Amino acid sequence: MLKPLLLDQHFLAGLGNIYVDESLWLAQLHPRRISSGLSKTEAQKLHYAIRAVLRKGIKNLGTTLGKGQTNFFSVGKRRGHNREQLMVFRRTGQKCLRCGAIIKRIIVGQRSTHICPKCQWV
Ligand SMILES: [Zn+2]
Asked: How far is the CA of 102 from the centre of ligand 1 (A)?
């Protein structure tokens, strides 16, 4: 499945739970899709999405979700500003910014996962 594969640091280093959800939403791919079943166009779309999502995260100095020590902080304990610009992650119950459907939270590979049920199909 796409999500567990993208979280596998042996396969691709650097993507965590937030950025995987954001990338799959941007590429309009369901996290339970079987990776070997992607078309070349879908794979290219995913590649583009991952690069765009990471670029945005870096530009915003990372994604700080809360105040606790386990959250992400930049050099000098600065908060990242990417949380305010997340498209799908932890937006459960809110409208999809692309189509207006309600964002849902599901579990994929034992990880909390956020999807638009209309934009991201299996
Ligand atoms: Zn949508």
From this structure: 8
